[in-house]
Amino acid sequence: MFKFTYYRRIQVSFLLLIFIPLIAVSIISFVLIRDTMVEKLQLSNDNFLNVMIDELNKTIDDVTFASHFIVNDTNFRANLKVFADTERLNTYQDYVHFTQIQDVFSLINSKPLNNNIRMYLVNRKHFVISSGTENLSVINANMDKLMGRVNIHEPETLQWLGMADSGSGKSSSYYIARVIYDSREKQQVSVLLISIPDAYFNKLLGPVEFGKLALFDSRGGLIAGNSELAPEGKEARGSVRTARAIDKSNWELVYEASEKEWSGQISRTFYSGIGLVLLLFIVFSATSMLIAKRLHSPIMKLQRVVRQFGMGNLDVRLEVKGKDEIAELGQTLNTMLDQLQGLIHDIELEQEQKRVMELEALFMQIRPHFLINTLNSIKCSLILAKDKLHSGIIDSLMSLLRAYLKVNEPATLREECRLLSHYIDIMKIRNEIPLELEVDLEADTEKLIVPKLILQPLVENAIVHGLVDHPAPRIVVRARTIPDGIMIEVEDNGCGAGAEILAGLNRRLLYKDDEQDGTYQRVGLINVVQRLRLTYGQDTRLSLHNLPQGGVSVSLYLPQGNHQVNLSEREGY
């Protein structure tokens, strides 16, 4: 009979590996072709930018020629010196000098090959002489801003001032300045301003077939071109960026083409091919997922059954269908769960029986001889004193006897302290000591469930070993809530105990040493610890230490847990 085993299912899954080489080859081919196109595009961009740089260098050469001519012409400099402080044409002589300067200036302006260049002479009073006949309102509107950029202390060199608005808000010009300096008077005679309109740059950097082109000055300011580019911008992923510097002006020409622009056709071809591959991959993947789901379903059922069994649902079992390996595994699992359930049931019964036996054994170790001695002492006292008021002591004793008879039943901490008060009344008569008991319980601890007569051995130890001969014996019982549990303390004001004795007792109590040495003190303390650990768990601790003012303090730590009950729900109290 044919079985669709895991081995064959794995074979089906491996069919998906057919698509991995196909996709890898497609991607590698695309990367190689794209890299080749990038190299060719870089070379084409270099040639394209070189043509533009040659044109810009010619314009800069024209500007340099005109500025050198003006600076080096002696007669022209003499006329500029005479006209340096003229604010307006007030006299005929001023007009004559103005006309002479303008005629020479117009002649110089006609020599540059580029007719887009405009030149202006600005004297020390900001009087402007133009090389042409254009309106001077634009240059006058920007005069303060432009002259603020000029460094008067750098004569004889071209200063690149940057772009300035024309005033209309629709066009602007790039300005270049050269200071005409009088070395004898050590001050400028005039400033030559040269403007190149943005229309010239926009025509030169006109729309390209694809990509973005921009021209920046030495400060990184945009002269013309696409404003989305930056002079030192990070190249976008997949884009091609070429930047060339123009040495004569410190300008930078930047071209950038995005991947979408330069690789459109190859990308479309690649994406069409990869789309077909992905379509086939999706179809086969969907088939594989359907198969994997059917494979994984019984495994998930196995997992849920095991998880629920681990969380305590011992009756959960797997529904077995089919005859494949999973079905056999499920049947085996059900058999194992049946065996585990029976084993757990047997262990629980055994642990419960062991716990009851341990409690009974521990309770048998509490010697009741002090009750007989107490009855005898009280009887003698009553006979000698002929005092019926001491009958209350008999009531206290009877209360303790009733507690012993119901020692297996739990009690609240408040009830335990009430039994302690009866026990103290008896011990006061028995030992003839003025013993006092003080109880200080926080409200949250009064209903704490504790084993009955759990504190009586601690109080008995305090009386026997520290308070018999004390002139004013006193015992204090405190209980308070701490962050991780509850702390109960029993303190006395007796003579204390030796440090070595306390250290030895604490070690035995801490490490759960159950070995008996025959002394009553050790039996009482170990019984208390064992009863508490059987009730609250192994994290329960008991420790002893001397108090600074004298006496011994016994501290009981009970770990965090729900130990409070409603007294109305408990019978017998």
From TrEMBL:
Keyword Cell inner membrane: no
TM helices/strands, residue ranges: 12-33, 270-292
GO molecular function, one term: helicase activity
Keyword terms: ATP-binding, Cell membrane, Helicase, Hydrolase, Kinase, Membrane, Nucleotide-binding, Phosphoprotein, Transferase, Transmembrane, Transmembrane helix
UniProt-listed CDD domains: HAMP
Protein known as: Helicase Ski2
Lineage top rank: taxon: Bacteria
Membrane topology classification: Multi-pass membrane protein
Main location: membrane
Domain HAMP span(s) in chain numbering: 293-345
Cellular compartment(s): Cell membrane
Ligase listed as a keyword: no
